Amino acid sequence: MIIRTNDLPYVIEVEIDGEITEEDIENFEAYFKQKKESLVNKAKLNLLMEIRSLDYTIDGLIKDIKFDTSHLDDFDKVAMVSDKKWAEIGEKLVKYMPQVEVRQFDPEEKEQAQAWVS
């Protein structure tokens, strides 16, 4: 997982292409905390995920689930940039994160996804 730093105060951008490890989630958590602390009025963050392929180590999956369940209220929008097969994941996310607006964008629509979460 690659975390792309940006100047957008409310947006975390990640690229996923392969296996997500416990260390990846720890790095994400550190960046999340940095972004969250910089916000005023306890505003929510938006997440832009560009997914090419996705797999987890067991430790990475457990760490991700723990993070997700403890931070559901910290996100407003999640944009998933991926091909159609990953759209199913987005549909499942909506069920577990009803307070978060989730949209799937095709790879050629990445600029629209960036605009939507900005």
From TrEMBL:
InterPro entries: SpoIIAA-like (IPR021866), SpoIIAA-like_sf (IPR038396), STAS_dom_sf (IPR036513). It comes from the Bacteria. It holds the Pfam family SpoIIAA-like. This is SpoIIAA-like. It comes from Alkalibacterium putridalgicola.
